[in-house]
Amino acid sequence: MAIDEIVTDSNLSMVLDASRDTRVQALSLVDQIAAAGPIESASPEAQQETSKQQKLLITNLAQLRGLHRAAYFGARQTKSQTSEARQEVDRLHLQLQNLYYEQRHLQGEISACESYESVPAEALTASRGPTPTQPPKARTMPPSSDDYYRNCYQFLASKIAQELIEFRNSHTYQKLPLLPLEEFLALKPEHADDDENTLMIARIEHERSEREALEQKRMELLKRKQKLIADNKKRKDDLANLDKELEKFIDSGRQTYSKALRQERLACTQSPFLYVSRNTEPWEIYYYGFLILFLSFGEFRDEQTLSQGEFSSYYLVRMEEYAYSGRNECTTQQVSTKLRVRGASSAFGPTSKGSPSRT
Predict the structure, then answer these.
(1) Does some domain include residue 280?
(2) Is the distance from CB of 292 to CB of 285 less than 8 angstroms?
(3) pLDDT of 107 above 80
(4) Which of 164-168, 179-183, 188-192, 227-231 has the highest mean pLDDT?
């Protein structure tokens, strides 16, 4: 497809024509310069012709540049107009969407009004005049037009009243589980002289207040139930934690009992000649079950302080030697010269709180 068939705008066609002429002029100038040779050795006529062709080429280029600038500004203006037109189209489209929304809203309102229980359409049609299916017969009507219209009005009024009564009896509020009239009047005797409409409004209002009170009571009971459930859950958690703590206490007691039992057995395996019993403060040293020494903290104020009350194997041997010497009685001062109490652990291990029988 030719370029002339694609481009149909007049301004662009002028640009294409000027570009074509400029191209032809440039090619002609190049051929002329190539035929004339170097410009220094060319004749004056050839140089004048070359200068003329250069001026024509510059003129065509200037014209082409002007057309290009005009086309550029035209494209910019076209873009601006296109943007404005697009904004206008968007605005109109938004208005159309708003109209569609209003239309749907009005259709919904119309449908809600049509579905609302009110006076039947037949009664409204009858109020406009006699229906074509039941026209009053002319031969049965009296000749007077006033009587004719009066009878028609009475007929329509009675029919509309009957339909209104039926509609009122079939309305939704008639189906509400209201308090019986006798019980309501017994509770509210001030409404005994009210008309039917006022009495019905009072009964509905009483039912509403009673239901609101019951709903409030139900919410209070529900909150109380939730609180009791939370308290029960907390107590269950506390009991579960108590069971765990009790199990830990039992395990620790078992370990303490096992340790004390091992210490008691260890004490029984020590030297049969000497047994040291450790209580809270006093210290009792037995020799074959006989109490040979009673020590307390107050008697060793000037000596090394008793911290653990345990004796080293060396001093225990000295005590055995002292016991073998045949002396059955000794004083605290005599024992303190042979025995030094130290706070480190003994080679025999810890002693037991129990003591042999005293004689």
Answers:
(1) yes
(2) yes
(3) yes
(4) 227-231
Determine, yes or no, domain membership for 191.
no
Write a three-state SS string for 92-132.
Answer: HHHHHHHHHHHHHHHHHHHHHHHHCCCCCHHHHHHHCCCCC
The conformational region for residue 247 under phi > 0 = left, psi -120 to 50 = alpha, else beta, is alpha
User: Helices (DSSP H) in the chain: which residue ranges?
Assistant: 3-6, 10-36, 44-115, 121-127, 145-169, 181-187, 196-268, 313-324, 332-338
Domain count, the chain: 4
Q: Are 13 and 7 in contact (CB under 8 A)?
A: yes
Nearest to 21 by CA among 55, 68, 48, 61: 61
- Identify whether residues 13 and 92 lie together within a single domain: yes
Among 116, 111, 152, 154, which Cα is nearest to 131's?
A: 152
What CA–CA distance (Å, rounded) separates 82 from 31?
46
* Report field, pTM of the whole predicted structure over 0.70: no
Q: Which domain holds residue 146?
A: 117-166
Q: Work out the percent of the chain whose per-residue pLDDT is above 70.
A: 56
pLDDT digits (tens, 9 = 90+) for 161-186: 766 666 555 566 667 778 888 888 88
